[in-house]
Structure formats: C-alpha cells, structure tokens
Amino acid sequence: MVGHGAKFDQKMEQAIAALLSHKSVDEAACEVGVSPNTLQRWMKEPEFQVKLRKARRAVFSQAIGRLQDAAGAAASTLLRIMMDANTPAATRLRAIEIVLEQGAKAATINDLDDRVTKLERNAHSSEITWLSSTPLPDAAPSPAQIAAPGRSTRQADAEAIE
Questions:
Q1: Res 67 pLDDT > 50
Q2: What is the pTM (predicted TM-score) of this model?
Q3: Structural domain harbouring 48
C-alpha cells in the first residue's frame, strides 16, 4: 500500500498546483484527473488546507517580489510622465498626486517603524522610569468626601466629625 499512498500524495500535490493555476475547482480537478467532488473533499481535509495555504503564500510572495523588482521602473515612468510638458495636464496632475501620496505613506511608515522600534527597545530594557515621585493618595475617599464633592476636604471632614 506504500505505492498507493505515494501516488495519492502526488495527486494531492498536483491538485494544489492545479488549484493555483486554474480559475475553478472543476478545471483543476479535470487537470489532475479526479472528480470535482473528490477535489472538494480533499479541500476540506486539514492537512490539504495547510499545504494549500502554504503554496498560496509562496505564490503570493513570489508575485510581491516581482512587483518590488519592477518598482524602480514604475517610479521612473511615473516621474517621466510628471515632468513631460507634452503630457496632458490632467495626467501630469495625477502623477504628481501619486508621487505625493506615496511619499507621504512612506514617511508615515518610516515614522511608525521608528516608534515601534523605540517601544520594543524600551520594553526589553530592565530599567523602569517613574513619571512622578508623589505618593499615591490614600486608598478610598472618606464618606464625607463622597457625600459633598463640591466642598473642600477640610470642610467635609469637619462636618463628618460633628
């Protein structure tokens, strides 16, 4: 039965690849040579779901890498459009908006990254900084203070004693 199990695992791996490259479960099932119901059943199995998620993350990561690789060319094109006097004004204006928006987002991300780094550094330090050296007040207010919050503490205490 070892051979059958290996063949089954190979079919599942093929099914994962097919799911990533086809528009529908039916098309993916046809590609692998199993029924759509079988593929739907496999998709409900936790082990299959884990492998499918891992494969999707890998594909997505590769796609993001390709976009990052093209970012330099995209920025150059955007700046060329923005600076070209022959480009229609509306298109140039949109390019300017994109440059400013992305610049602002980058600045915000850098600021947040700096703040998080500083917070993490402070969280890991063993030194505690006290903000005030004034001791905390007594635990609970007296009944007179609660009954007469508008009066001074001395007045309320004096009335409570009487």
A1: yes
A2: 0.53
A3: 10-71
